[in-house]
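Comment on both lines for my students:
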Amino acid sequence: MNIPNSVTSILRSLEAAGYEAYIVGGCVRDSLMGHQPHDFDITTSALPEETMSVFSDMQVIPTGLKHGTVTVLADGEPVEITTYRVDGDYADGRHPDEVHFTRSLAEDVARRDFTMNGIAYSPMRGLTDHCGGAEDIRRGIIRCIGEPDKRFGEDALRILRALRFSSVLGFDIEEKTADSIRRNRGLLSQVSGERILVELQKLLCGRNAAMVLLAYPEVFAEVIPELAPCIGYEQNSRYHCLTLYEHLVRAAENTPPDEGLRLAMLLHDIGKPLTRSEDDSGESHYYTHAEKSAELAEQALDRFHCSNALKARVCEIIRYHGIVPEDTDKFIRRRLSKHGAGTFRDIMLAHIADDSAKIASAKERIPVWRAIIRRAEEIAADQPCLSVKELAINGKDLLKLIKPSPLMGEVLDHLLNGVIDGRFNNDHDELMRLAEEYIRSK
């Protein structure tokens, strides 16, 4: 395995002092899968004070002595070293109330989440695999160590971690573990919104996200209750051939693996059940669903305490995904002015994803949407005037024509709209003349 010299040095120092020491967890898993790990966690038979003694000539930070963890700065990089331990009860469903240190690697591994994360490796001792994790990696299987109900009861976030690993790695979840995930999904209420969002974002960007979302809808409805009415919901529309939940999943699948886009598409139609109406022929319509969906999405994202920037981006994509784009420079300039180039591209990608998850004829519009994206990029590259601050005149210029008043803002908006539409040139003298004409008309 390709282990940094600093990590190897720490392992050798602990071994030379008479203790066992291994790298463990994700770094070993990734190495066995042919991926270069970025983080290396070390586990050792040395007690915390013994570890600190071994590295007394280096900077050692007692980051978590209660749980047996110290951090050693090796070549300027922090490396966590944790004593073998056995966890006590998990009253809060997240952290053990107490831990007991042990000299047994097997006992330490038995408390971990999944077999693939329970493999240890030492350059001196080789691979140690008490749970069959290497074979599960070879077969592409996610399996809890020991009893799944106990593992998920200790830390409910492991439910989403299992689903995230399945999405990102493309692994299947072993049947007993899968049954426990569904049975214990209610435990996710104990997990903070911030931690749920981190796992959800990684999951949504995984290569098998759609497979996982479709296999465990009840779990995702547990963390996003707004999805629950969408499961099995028949849309009764000539444009749709999937249930609403299936449409949301397939639309998310058809965007680039970007956390904002995929979150937006997973939530873009959640307002439909609340806005349904039927015409005389019995077909359903959802005229205000985009606005309602944005409202519900904001509600969900507030529970996750996500950043204002992510929430604003997701909700803007949802709010405007229902506006039918026009392949004209006038429309594109106005939308670039309203949303900015990045968000307008997001909205157009949302149209592509939305139509990709509808009936076959809807997909015929996708080339038009792609052409609009290309044209928008061309227009944006020319750096056109798309905001008041980019106009060739400003409020100081208007003071030569009128006294300060709300009319000044109205004049600037009028001039900006004319420039965006191509009716006016962004020229100082021309805009001053047009401003004077507009003021006289008022």
